[in-house]
Amino acid sequence: MRIQFLGGVETVTGSQHLVEAGGRRVLRDCGLFQGKRDEARAINTRLSCPPAALDAVVLSHAHIDHCGNLPSLARAGYAGPIHATTATVALAGVMLRDAARIQEQDAAYLNQKANRQGLPAVAPLYTAADAEAALKLFQGHRYGDTIEPAPGIRVLFQDAGHILGAAVNVFELAEDGRQARVGFAVDLGRKDLPIIRDPESMRDLDLLVLESTYGDRLHDEATRAEDELGTAINRTLARGGKVLIPSFALERAQELLYHLANLFSSGRVRQVPVYLDSPMAVELTQIFGRHSDYFDAETQALLAQLGSILRPDWVHFSSTVEESKKITASDEPCVIIAPNGMCEHGRILHHLKHGVGNPANTILIVGFQAANTLGRRLVERAPRVKIFGDEFVRRAEVLTLNAFSAHADRNDLLAYVRQVQPRRIALVHGEPKIRAALAQALRAMQSAPVLEPQTGEVVEL
Ligand SMILES: [Zn+2]
Description:
By secondary structure, the chain is of the alpha/beta class.
């Protein structure tokens, strides 16, 4: 019985773990490695485990760094089952089709260049057809279900409290009369997030594989997000401005709609039009609406009270570019939620170009912005920013809200270990320095032995 750490080990992208017992193999997650183009291409093309050797795949959730390389697995001939919660199955459909579109566009762009230089054509990492092939293999389960994807390997799905449908899994392994229990809390969410329930605890683990993304820092309490959002909107509306929010399409956009429903219905914020300017976010929001059985008690109650929290009449879903342009041109006070993309591409750029110079407006940052992106320049409140090649003076207020995060912070991770009391811990899914800081904090509280595996390393059970 063994675990091999294949991806997303000393980094937060490309999560993959191989679980083996009695000669059977189950892959937990098959995430896309996202980074510099050539490095990403090399890592994503080289499948660490040949598809023919796999009995099954267990998928934790629909974030691309966990599900985004499943089409490569299907492209390489994998035809076994992919097990996930029913909500993850639905969300992954949208995410993987979008990922395939990006891969195809990327290859087309490279091929234009290759063509000019007389170089051989590049094939996309995977195509829409590969994504569809992978999606055909999905099987939906519920929290609390235990499945047996291969003889000697049983898997329990529990709520990760991370995004809709996200699961932490306990693998119960059996081999030659011996047993081992391995828990995967990768990714692990945090308590009090809107819409979804809090993370569930696991019990009696020989090994806990735990993420360490924010192992060295603390977020603001999730419960503060709504008040901070309300204050920022009120200040902007008092100035007659627009609130521009670059947002991830999955979970964060729906969280924002939930908070807005609360703020408007309680009268804390004057009701203004809200534009969800992202076809993908619109599609994902519809899926949320169909999975209200995954909602927590507060959200169920709000839903019963208001009838609709994600599709009320003040939300305008814009799917076409024409609709998007109309919103940009209008000067009415409103809230615009547009795809994040670190503000490097997509519809948010048009809104920013039109709105960044107006001191009445607020640009609200509610998600991670990587170095060397326009999003980061805004977070740093740069006085001038470049959009579509032109320089603009930034007069709009920029506000970063740190209460928004779907990941456990250092204290959440330590509390989780205290609650679960595993016999060994393996830290993954974190930059090396951050992971080391969490390992040190765990050792300081005299937890079970802490491993910091390298990519490719095997732990025997
Ligand atoms: Zn995630």
